[in-house]
Amino acid sequence: MSKTFRLISLFSTVELVLHGIWEYTACGFLYSMEGQGFIEHQLLMIQATIGDVFIALGLFLMLAFVNHSFSWFLKNWERKDYIISTLYSALAAFYFEAHALQLGRWKYQDTMPLVYGTSIALVPVIQLALLLPLGFIITKKIYQIT
């Protein structure tokens, strides 16, 4: 198996687990899923988790392009990597939350904190800002011990 394929596969798996745990944990008390049956709810959770993995892969590929290497994150991050990751996370979270709200895929509970001056939840922004870099860190650790 090539190093690039191994890194991408490992990264995708790590992100799938991280975002799956996050989605199932946060969804219950921060989102309103009224009117959805069990199957509908599970499908939405799976779609959200897989969507998060594709968002993570987008960041992976963007940073691989910027750094001219698929294994860039095995080294120390540079300032540009942090800036790109932070901006990408925020923009992706805002876009996908706004899109989902507009389509009526979900609503927020009253307990959901919003980004000041917007109708967008703060939690998904934090989710991507934390879990995307965490996925790189965990992938690096796993890759180094295997």
What does this structure look like?
The protein is mainly alpha-helical. The protein has one domain. Helices cover about 75% and strands about 5% of the residues. It contains four helices and two strands. The protein has a two-stranded antiparallel sheet with strand order 1-2. Helix 1 packs across helix 2 and helix 1 packs antiparallel against helix 4. It is globular and about 45 Å long. The mean pLDDT is about 90. Keywords: Membrane, Transmembrane, Transmembrane helix. This is ABC-transporter type IV.
Secondary structure: elements and pairs:
Blueprint (H helix, E strand, L loop, with lengths): L2 H28 E2 L5 H30 L11 H25 L3 E2 L13 H24 L1
Antiparallel strand pairs: 1-2
Keywords: Membrane, Transmembrane, Transmembrane helix
Protein name: ABC-transporter type IV
Largest sheet: 2 strands, antiparallel
Outline the low-pLDDT stretches. Answer: none
- Look at the helices and sheets and give the structural class: mainly alpha
Beta fraction of the residues? under 5%
Q: What letter string, H or E per element, gives the SSE order? A: HEHHEH
Which strand order do you get reading across the main beta sheet? 1-2
Number of helices: 4
Mean pLDDT: 89
Count of the separate structural domains = 1
Helix content: over 70%
Rounded to the nearest angstrom, the distance between the terminal CA atoms is 13 Å
Rg over alpha carbons = 16 Å
- The global form is globular
Would you report the number of β strands? 2
